[in-house]
């Protein structure tokens, strides 16, 4: 934990000392502009949160942003809908995003480290290919991926959503940057001289050094998978395996012909945002997004 | 191509850098191994390198390379009539470049590219501009509510694209919207372009702001103090010192926003049932989706995808090149 | 690579076991101990309750229902999953998309599995919807003879007569606008290809017809163009609302009583009941307005059949289930009462006449008699092999026309051109 907490502080110095020292009054113009920006970003979120408290009858008829009376009923309706499908979707999302981001980050860390610290034939080809991978729209890949996974009998299973998202070219690229910048060659040499194997060196020395960056990759990938829609949409037909995004989409699609489902979908949207926001708030200070900018130089 | 895959900088943002941030940031690309230490080890070492990248390579080949090759194969095939009877049977056969001819001569594709451009021209600069503005403001001394604003502006990043589009959809429709009184037809042209771009901006501004803000935070405070002592105002510090310092971060966020704009799909697709102004081929990827799924023309979809991917690649390389030249000249 | 190998082994073992199973009881067919398991995609609400009845009565054939996401997504996924060999055994599909699914080898030919009793459960024109070149590709499930749902209370309040011809409808539209500027008599939605096609049929159009192996496409024939001009006139005068239907916006307008009619089909009360439950009882159903006073034939809009897919390993059992669900008295009645569908089978339609009317039109005791009367006189229709292309082109071209101010007439000509070009590229002979 100490690495986690101390490393970001080295770069993100937190509230600048100048701010504390300032004896003069608040700068109002920047404050107001920032608050306006915050309001712009919060309005839709507030709308969905208040709308989630409205009963179906109140949803589009009462004043927006004023809490309604149906929140508990909506929650109850949401979690009992279709025999508890919503809870199932939430668990699925947690599974896809949790397992997917962990495995993906491990794979990216190893690959990034390998690319940064070892010279081998084909390294440059790999880098170029990975760069091309970032540019491939998911929709272009989805159909061939579906057909290929079908050929090995995996389409429609949990694996069909989990596996294609494991390889994350951008994550590999970031890990490459992190490994280059935070793992000194001298340290590796020293470890090798001490007789440590490559795997042990990686695990015991390099990974802790790369950890703040890895948290960033993990978080980015978690959010990416949690928010993914297209891949599960194409791969899955069994609602029991749907993630939240797809489940909400079907709720809303049906809502156009059955307006009672709108309030369920809106409540579901509000509920589905909560865990991610909580996760982000908790992990926000471990972000090393500044490191991202290292990459475009050159 | 070699410039597109630069070696990583030897020191990032002053973490180990002994030089000032300016030097660290604009370190010239060194294609040589950093520090001259023996990265190029013996055969065993190189084998270990293969070992580390192997899992990623296997998955990359399975889920990127193979699908891309398969897509190229599909793009050369099309469903054609076989068998007699009035209905007959459509079967996939080799059609050569027919799908490419159709894609390149399709006025709808051209129109959809135009619309994508219009949205990108709004969304990319606004996202970057607003992100830079907020990042700079967060970095100004004696500003209140910094933590609150930062969190609030970042919040939309956690909202799934589908949900974000639906929320804004509700906010755009006169009956369900708190802004219905304005009488603006948010979902009719020309406001529609702004409405779609707005969703992209809303979702993206926070992430970009954080990238830029952390880049700013990593600059030692002494640099600004020195400037202040020299009598520079905050605006001048922002313009003359801060913005040049975050150019690399700006280039990166710019590239991301650009790629995002090229791949715009979810927002208009989700809004489509709410308005007659969004056609099934409104942006290029919607056309790909329609061909692949609605009209069962998978060859056509594959051909369009290949054309789009090549276009994106070219454009991104151009932007990268330009960004690199910029970065170099600023050093 | 390991998992894949293991999976292959498992599959091989499974095949062996299955094979052994078949040899053991090959002659006796499926049994309760070793039931045939069938998957069925349907978006019909509560259809799983009807299926439960079947499963209880037929332990040897067990059916599982999945809602793959409404009519559009179901058809979309069917095509993709068939390509990958993963499609369910059976699926509900709308009539217009059926030919494209036959051509795409999604729907299986089940002629040999359908007996005469099933065939006789439907009228000739209904049966024709699922039969091509004398081969049966599906069992009709529900039908949508076109009718007009209207707000009886608001018509009375504004002193407007219920129109019986489209000319009267146009006059009534102006009357409504004059009497209450916040209200419209109806909506013109550019993505309602089915409605437009039905109205064009009523005017004498034939969008597709076959002569031997040669197709004629008449999407821009005189009758269809007349329909285009009709709606263009109404939209230009702001006499009807031009907007997509079944959006939160439109639903709210319906709930507020600002949309006075929904010309569509017999199933419309169920939809509006879900969309605006608080307006139940205020509505009534009338025959669709006619082009010529005194005519009675109307087109069909919506409605669906259920198909057996080419991916199914048990087409015979699947056809047996679908025949029960759609063709038997028991199944058709359950479709009516549980699913709230208007059954395609004549037995179900007759059973309906002794039913209470839907809650939305609660006051209209003769609702199902009227429906049966309309259903008995529908216009036969042939859908083309690329309706999916036409449908997408229709919404796009009409949408562009309402946005850019082009004429609906030109838009229709464009739809015709797109449809013909696509058919010719696929290899069909198109004479016009």
UniProtKB/TrEMBL annotation, chain A:
Region annotation (Disordered) ranges: 1-23
Bias kind Polar residues: ranges: 1-10
Residue spans crossing the bilayer: 28-49, 94-113, 125-147, 159-180, 201-226, 260-283
UniProt keyword Transcription present: no
InterPro entries: MetI-like, MetI-like_sf
Keywords carried by this UniProt record: Cell membrane, Membrane, Transmembrane, Transmembrane helix, Transport
One Gene Ontology cellular component annotation held by this UniProt entry: plasma membrane
Domain ABC transmembrane type-1 positions: 90-283
PROSITE patterns, sorted: ABC_TM1 (PS50928)
CDD domains in alphabetical order: TM_PBP2 (cd06261)
Subcellular location(s) per record: Cell membrane
Keyword Transmembrane listed: yes
Any one GO biological process: transmembrane transport
Topological type in the membrane: Multi-pass membrane protein
Cross-referenced PANTHER family: ABC TRANSPORTER PERMEASE PROTEIN MG189-RELATED (PTHR43744:SF12), ABC TRANSPORTER PERMEASE PROTEIN MG189-RELATED-RELATED (PTHR43744)
Recorded family membership: Belongs to the binding-protein-dependent transport system permease family.
Protein name: Carbohydrate ABC transporter permease
Organism: Pseudokineococcus marinus
TrEMBL record, chain B:
GO biological process entries: transmembrane transport
Membrane-topology annotation of the record: Multi-pass membrane protein
Main location: membrane
Record's subcellular location: Cell membrane
Residue intervals of the ABC transmembrane type-1 domain: 113-319
InterPro entries: ABC_transporter_permease (IPR051393), MetI-like (IPR000515), MetI-like_sf (IPR035906)
One Pfam assignment: BPD_transp_1
Keywords of the record: Cell membrane, Membrane, Transmembrane, Transmembrane helix, Transport
TM region(s), chain numbering: 47-73, 116-140, 152-171, 191-216, 245-265, 298-320
Protein name: Sugar ABC transporter permease
Species of provenance: Pseudokineococcus marinus
From TrEMBL, chain C:
Signal sequence bounds: 1-26
Lineage: superkingdom: Bacteria
InterPro entries, per database record: Bact_solute-bd_prot1 (IPR050490), SBP (IPR006059)
Keywords assigned by UniProt, alphabetized: Cell membrane, Lipoprotein, Membrane, Palmitate, Signal
Protein name as annotated: Extracellular solute-binding protein
Annotated organism of origin: Pseudokineococcus marinus
């Amino acid at each position: 934990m100490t690495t986690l907490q101390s490393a970001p502080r080295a770069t993100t110095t937190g509230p600048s000392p100048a701010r504390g020292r300032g004896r003069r009054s608040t700068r109002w113009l920047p404050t107001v502009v920032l608050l306006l920006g915050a309001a712009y970003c919060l309005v839709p979120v507030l709308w969905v949160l208040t709308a989630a408290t409205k009963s179906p009858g109140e949803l589009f008829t009462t004043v927006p942003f004023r809490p309604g009376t149906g929140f508990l009923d909506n929650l109850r309706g949401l979690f009992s809908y279709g025999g508890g499908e919503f809870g199932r979707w939430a668990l699925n999302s947690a599974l896809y995003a949790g397992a997917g981001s962990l495995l993906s980050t491990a794979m990216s860390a190893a690959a990034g480290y390998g690319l940064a610290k070892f010279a081998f034939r084909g390294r440059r080809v790999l880098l170029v290919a990975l760069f091309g991978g970032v540019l491939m729209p998911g929709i272009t890949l989805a159909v061939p991926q579906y057909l290929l996974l079908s050929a090995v009998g995996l389409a429609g299973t949990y694996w069909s959503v989990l596996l294609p998202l494991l390889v994350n070219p951008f994550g590999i690229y970031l890990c490459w940057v992190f490994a280059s910048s935070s793992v000194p060659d001298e340290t590796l040499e020293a470890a090798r001289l001490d007789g440590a194997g490559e795997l042990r060196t990686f695990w015991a020395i390099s990974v802790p050094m790369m950890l703040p960056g890895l948290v960033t990759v993990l978080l980015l990938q978690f959010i990416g998978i949690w928010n993914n829609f297209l891949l599960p949409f194409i791969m899955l037909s069994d609602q029991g395996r749907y993630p939240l995004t797809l489940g909400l989409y079907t709720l809303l699609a049906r809502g156009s012909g059955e307006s009672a489902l709108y309030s369920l979908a809106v409540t579901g949207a509000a509920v589905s945002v909560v865990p991610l926001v909580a996760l982000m708030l908790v992990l926000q200070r471990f972000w090393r997004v500044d490191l991202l900018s290292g990459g475009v130089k050159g | 191509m070699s410039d597109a895959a630069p070696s990583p900088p030897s020191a990032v943002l002053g973490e180990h850098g002994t030089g000032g941030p300016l030097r660290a940031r604009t370190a010239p690309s060194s294609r040589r191994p950093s520090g001259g230490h023996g990265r190029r080890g013996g055969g065993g070492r190189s084998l270990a390198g293969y070992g580390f990248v192997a899992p990623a390579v296997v998955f990359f080949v399975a889920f990127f390379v193979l699908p891309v090759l398969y897509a190229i194969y599909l793009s050369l095939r099309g469903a054609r009539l076989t068998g007699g009877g009035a209905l007959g049977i459509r079967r996939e056969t080799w059609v050569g470049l027919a799908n490419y001819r159709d894609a390149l001569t399709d006025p709808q594709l051209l129109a959809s590219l135009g619309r994508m451009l219009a949205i990108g021209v709004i969304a990319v600069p606004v996202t970057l501009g607003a992100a830079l503005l907020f990042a700079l403001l967060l970095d100004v001394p004696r500003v209140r509510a910094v933590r609150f604003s930062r969190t609030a502006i970042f919040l939309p990043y956690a909202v799934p694209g589908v949900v974000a589009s639906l929320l804004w959809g509700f906010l755009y429709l006169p009956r369900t919207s708190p802004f219905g009184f304005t009488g603006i037809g948010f979902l009719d042209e020309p406001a529609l372009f702004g409405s779609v771009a707005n969703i992209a901006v809303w979702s993206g501004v926070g992430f970009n702001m954080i990238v830029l803000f952390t880049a700013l935070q990593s600059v030692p405070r002494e640099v600004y103090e020195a400037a202040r002592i020299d009598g520079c105002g905050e605006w001048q510090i922002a313009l003359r010192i801060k913005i040049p310092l975050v150019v690399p971060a700006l280039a990166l966020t710019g590239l991301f926003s650009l790629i995002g704009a090229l791949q715009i799909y979810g927002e208009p697709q989700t809004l489509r049932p709410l308005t007659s102004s969004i056609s099934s081929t409104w942006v290029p990827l919607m056309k790909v989706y329609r061909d692949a799924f609605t009209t069962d023309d998978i060859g056509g979809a594959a051909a369009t995808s290949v054309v789009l991917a090549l276009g994106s690649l070219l454009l991104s390389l151009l932007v990268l090149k330009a960004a690199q030249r910029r970065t170099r000249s600023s050093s | 690579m390991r998992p894949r190998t293991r999976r292959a082994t498992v599959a091989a073992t499974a095949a062996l076991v299955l094979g052994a199973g078949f040899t053991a009881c090959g002659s006796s067919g499926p049994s309760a101990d070793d039931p045939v398991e069938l998957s069925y995609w349907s978006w019909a609400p509560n259809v799983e309750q009807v299926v439960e009845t079947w499963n209880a009565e037929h332990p040897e054939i067990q059916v599982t229902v999945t809602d793959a996401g409404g009519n559009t997504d179901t058809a979309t996924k069917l095509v993709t999953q068939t390509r990958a060999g993963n499609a369910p055994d059976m699926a509900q599909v709308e009539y217009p998309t059926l030919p494209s699914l036959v051509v795409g080898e999604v729907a299986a030919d089940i002629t040999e599995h359908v007996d005469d009793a099933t065939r006789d459960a439907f009228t000739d024109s209904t049966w024709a919807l699922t039969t091509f070149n004398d081969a049966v590709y599906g069992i009709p499930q529900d039908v949508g003879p076109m009718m007009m749902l209207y707000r009886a209370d608001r018509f009375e309040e504004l002193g407007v007569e219920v129109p019986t011809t489209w000319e009267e409808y146009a006059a009534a539209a102006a009357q409504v606008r004059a009497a209450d500027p916040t209200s419209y008599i109806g909506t013109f939605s550019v993505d309602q290809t089915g409605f437009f096609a039905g109205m064009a049929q009523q005017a004498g159009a034939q969008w597709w017809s076959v002569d031997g192996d040669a197709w004629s496409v008449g999407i821009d024939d005189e009758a269809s163009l007349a329909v285009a001009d009709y709606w263009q006139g109404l939209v230009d005068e702001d006499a009807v609302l031009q907007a997509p239907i079944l959006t939160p916006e439109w639903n709210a307008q319906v709930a507020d009583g600002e949309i006075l009619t929904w010309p569509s089909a017999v199933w419309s009360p169920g939809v509006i009941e879900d969309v605006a439950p608080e307006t139940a009882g205020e509505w009534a159903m009338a025959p669709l307005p006619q082009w010529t006073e005194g005519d009675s034939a109307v087109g069909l809009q919506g409605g669906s059949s259920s198909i057996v897919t080419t991916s199914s390993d048990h087409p015979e059992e699947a056809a047996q289930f679908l025949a029960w669900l759609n063709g038997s008295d028991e199944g058709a009645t359950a479709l009516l009462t549980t699913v709230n569908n208007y059954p395609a089978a004549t037995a179900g339609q007759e059973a309906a006449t002794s039913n209470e009317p839907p809650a939305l039109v609660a006051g209209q005791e003769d609702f199902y008699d009227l429906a049966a009367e309309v259903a008995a006189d529908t216009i036969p229709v042939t859908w083309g092999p690329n309706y999916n292309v036409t449908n997408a082109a229709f919404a796009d071209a009409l949408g562009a026309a309402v946005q850019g101010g082009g004429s609906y007439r030109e838009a229709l000509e464009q739809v015709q051109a797109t449809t013909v070009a696509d058919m010719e590229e696929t290899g069909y002979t198109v004479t016009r």
